[in-house]
Prior knowledge:
single chain, mainly alpha, 65% helix, rod-shaped, membrane, transmembrane helix, transmembrane
Amino acid sequence: MHQDAIRPHRDKPGVSARGIVLTLLGVVIGTAGYYASWRYQTPLGTIGGIAGLALCVIGTSHGHEGGH
């Protein structure tokens, strides 16, 4: 008998909409910030880029909470 053929089905957690929105918002803000920092040599652009990166990290961490 093949006992290993019978395995319990594990549901993978869904991706939450909040995580997707935060990640995409982080990409947009981060890209704009780093572009402004590079193009205009402004510290505000660097701060925007760092804020965008932080939103991406937060969005990714919240993205695995599951979307119900």
